[in-house]
# Entry
Amino acid sequence: MNTMFFVVCIVAIGCTAGVVSEYLKTRARKEEGDADIDDTLAHMEELEERVRVLERIVTEKKYDLGKEIDKL
# Structure
């Protein structure tokens, strides 16, 4: 076999290993990012529920009546 063939094979193996390595790193980062996104979405849902509860409390008639009594 030709020496040039071996050089091309070694370069090709090196490039392929580099591409596979970067692919695996990117995939690992994506999985970490997905977990962070899930945590953030869960936290946002909790906050939205708290805001709904606060809106319900503020819009109750008893709350308005108490506020008017305090003004007197």
